[in-house]
Each structure stands twice: as structure tokens, then as C-alpha cells.
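Two records follow; treat each independently.
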Amino acid sequence: MARDADSALTRRRKIASLVREQSRCTVNDLARQFDVTTATIRTDLAALEAEGKVVRTYGGAVPASGMPREASPELRGYAAEKRRIAHAALPLVGSEETVVLATGTTVLAFARALARSNVHDLRIITPDLNVALALDARDDFTVIVLGGELSHRQQYSYGDQAELMADAFHAQKCFMSTMGVSLEAGLTAPDVRAAQLDRRLLSMAGEHTLLADASKLGVVALERFADLGQMDNVVMDDSVDDQTAGAIGSLGVNLVLAP
């Protein structure tokens, strides 16, 4: 097991170096070069993106260095799918509700959709600075930002202080994204601190909604923070195959496919 972990770390270091040198690498080329499956490469790229070393694009990755930080969320992969997912999730929110918005670019897309929507007088709790700023234009929204140690690359707060602050609040609904979605492994995060934060955010709310594009399917990151069956709703883009959609539905989850 330790040898496998060392091998994955070594491969990821080499992948990050190649992406920097070549400006862009595709999943298929990397899979051939390292003699692994494309699913393994997607997991590697997801982990490297979480570390701020690459930015995923459709079918590959580009270097993260040299990008303006405030622009990077817009330039990450599957932007169109994330916007469609965000729009499809809007009917799950009602005016005058208290909701938790977790972290990540799909949640950010949802926050921007909320800011443009007719939903009014929301109370929103989030640890994500980009999410909070996206909601700032709405004077009728009350936005509470959880404090704590700042994750500089991902721009969200985490740690004991963030979790203690989260314990003080109760919400009706929580909307969250994830690095990986697997029927067997559940929802997974890239590191222990992210998983701990996600668990705490889920515990704040009675209804849970996962927002995830189909590229996350089959990806298994370091630590599980929830089972897929714990979600009340899963909103994904419509490229999900029928077999997977049926398996998700069999868990008693309301699956919404964004057209």
C-alpha cells in the first residue's frame, strides 16, 4: 500500500512537471506515457488541481502558475457543465431559507446563479471567500463567512475555528461539490482537513445536495467524507450514462440531470 502511494506521488510530480514544460497535456497522452488508465490520470489531475499545481481543462490540464488567482475559477475545466448544473439546482432553493454553500468551482457557479435569480432574502453560510464575494451584490442576502485558517490556493477557511463556528449555526439545506464521486467509495476529498470541513458542513443542514459534473464519476480521492446515499439530491450534467443514473437512483437519491 505504501509503495502504491509513493508511486502515485512520484507520477503526479512528473505529471505536474510535464504540464509546466508543455503548457498543456491531454489525459490520453498522459495515460499512454505512464501506462495507467485514463481514470487514474483524471484522479491525478484532480489531486494536482486541489494542490494548485494544474488547472483541469476539457480532456487535459494546463499549468496553474501565471494565472491570475481571481480568474482561475472561471478557467477550470467543465465550466459550461458547471453553469448548467448551477441553473438546474436553482429550484431546490426557496426564498427566506438558510443554506450552506461549501467550497469549489461548481458551488461558486451555483452562488453566481443564485445572485442572478429571483430567490430572495436568503441567509447563506460559507467558508469560501469566492462564494461570499459572488453573493455580495445581493443586498437582500445575508452572507456569513466561517472564520479559520485560510487555504491560500483554494481560498476557503478550514480548521478548528471554522468548525467551531459552524457548530453555532443551523441551516435547512447544504449544497456541496466534491473531488470524487463513486458508488462504492462515496464522496471523497483530497486531504484530511477538506474532508473534516465537508463533514461539518453537511452536519449543519437537514437536506443535502451534491453538485458535480460527470468528470468526477469514478474518481476516488484520499478520504471519504460521505456516502452517496446520504445525499437527498444529486445534480449532474446529462452526460451521465443510463446505468450510472439508475444506480444513483436506486440509492433513494433524487437525481437531477442538467440539460
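The next record belongs to a different protein.
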Amino acid sequence: MGFQELTPKELLGAGHAAPEINDTAWHVRWDAPDAPDASEVLAALPPEVEFHTSGSTGPSRCWQRTREYAWSEAGMLAGFVSAGVHGPPGAVVAFAPPLHVYGALATYLMPARLGVPVWYRKSYVGAMPEVGHGHTVVVATPWIFSLLLRNIDWVRSLGHLTVLYSSAMLPGDAHTLLEQAGSGRVTLVELLGSTETGGIATRRWSGGEPPAWTLFPDVSYGTESPSAGTAQDTESAAELVIRSPRLGHQPGQPRPADWRTGDLVEPVDARTFRLVGRVGRLVKVNGRRINLDETEHVLRTAIDCEDLALVAVGDPMTGEQIDLHVVSTPGTDLSEVPALLGVRPRKVHKVPRINRSKTGKLLHHQKTPVTEPVTQPRRES
């Protein structure tokens, strides 16, 4: 797959939401002598930049933020990927569509802040671009880790690779990439945020156990967030409430003062916290507390299937229960699910697909029809 050559002015003129900017592969040289400066980039953006939620937790909604705050956040991302001994990158290879807030900031604007060339495509198919042998940033979506493993020689040819990632829980391939690339050759820079808030927190690591999350420089805990030392375990973790000047607002509405993120956290200090899970993704079944995101990760590494999802459901007799949705293959074996899950799922739905947003998030309503009778996993004798 080739990359269409665009000038920075052509990219800005089309806009981040244009179909030709999201659906086709392109290459822009922000290091060109005639590339627009910061004032010209800002002037090319609309005064209020609009983004729409994915619809993973309800109807899609429009959220606006000023172009100045979008440009500011792109600068923070540029700083995150430039930190460390390897310094600023010399190139960006991006896979996050600019239509969404993460792609708009990281794919569309961050290379302009860095002043480096960027290659973009959203397809899994095609060769990796020739970017030289220096420090390179990949703007990743969940499936990109698998692509990088398939192109491990390209990864090893680089002076250093920084993978910028903002989505659901890291896939298992991310840990495999760190191992196969070699010691210290890849750095992960994770972002926590949403369409409504923009970036909230980040963490940077290259192996071992991931560190705690650190709030963005302009973000602070809201008045309702827990204080450090008050949440000692997942039983007492509290929802993260934040304050930020970059909070989005709906058209015609004022910007909110605080935002309830839906993330359950245990604060470490005034700037860092441990992420426990999502509100609604921590359930207690038969007295056992289960983090559905972490458990999905365990199941994916152990079960041969195309996709799977755990969905919390209510039960009139026992309260909270779990349903397993699985897109099976001929070799899918679900006999170990109860042992891996720690409880027996209420139901197992074998489905042709699982409805997800473009960034991989599980959509709130799974309307996919069941293609096989709903079955209980067989009991071990």
C-alpha cells in the first residue's frame, strides 16, 4: 500500500474529520522548510474542534473544545514521547484515525508540534514505511501490536521505538513485543482519557510491572476524588473525579467544572494513582470480586477464538452475574472457562461477532444474534 503525498496545508485544509484523511493512507512532511508554524496551524483549525463519542456506553454525543486547548494537548503528547534518553523522535507512523480525539491529537496535530514527517494508514495490510533508523513513534490502536510483531525486523532496525497507546486494556501482544524486540528497544507511553475529557493521565514503561499513572500537568483531582491513603484495596477504591481546563462541553452548554471519569482508582499521592478498573466492570459474583477487563485478558491468552467479551448482567436470584460472548473457531475449547474465570458464567453466547467501537471498546448493547443455542459450560466430573 502506497502513501499519498500531502503538504501540511493540504492536510489542514481538508480537516481532521474528512473521509479522505481518515480512510486513505498519506504522508506529510512537517519538517519541510515551508511547513506552517504554530500560529498558522491554529488559524487553520476551527475555533471549536468537535469530536463525537464512540457510542460504547450510550448514544454518540458531540463534544467541543477550543483549538488552543487541542493544540496544547498535542504539545503535551509531543513532550511525553520525547522524554527519556532517546530524545525527540525523528518520525511518526500513525494508525489512529484523526476523526476521533486520540487520532486528531496524536496523528493529526502531534507531528506538527514535533516538526517531523508522519505516515498514516488505518489498514492492517501493507508494508511498514521506510522511516530511517532513528527514534520513531507509532501511534497505536489495539491491533497494531500484532502488526509490529509481524514486522519485528522493522522494529529492530530502528534506533528506538516509542509506542503511544490510548484505548482499552493493553493486549497480550504488547508484552510479547517488549520481550521480542529486545531489552530497552521499545517504550510504551500509555494515555488515559476520553472524548469528554481529553487526556487525563499517562504512564511510561519498557518492561516489568507497569508503574502508577501520573496526571497530565494541567489535571488535578476533583473535590470528590479519594485522597491518597484512603483506598487501600479494590473494596474501597473510589471513582476518579478530575478537574481540567481541557474538559469538553456540548454545543451551547458551559464547560463542566469537574468530570466523573467512571474509572476506579487508588491514589498514591497528589499526582499519581493505581487504576483498579471501570465502574460497572468490577462485579462481585458469589462473594468473589472480579475485574472483567483483567479477566478478559486472561481468557484471551488461554482460549483460541476470534474474539470474546465478558458482560455483567443482573440476576433476580443472585444479583450480579457474568455472561460470556465468544466468537469461536473450529478449535475453540471453553471447558477451562470456569477455572480461569473463578466462577461459572451464567450463560455462554456463541456469536458471529462482538459489537465494538472503532477503537476496540465493547459497545454497551450487544445486539448480535446468537447463532448457536445458549449453553452452560460443561461441569467437570
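Discussion point: The first strand starts at residue 4 and ends at 6. How would you locate this feature using only the C-alpha cell line?
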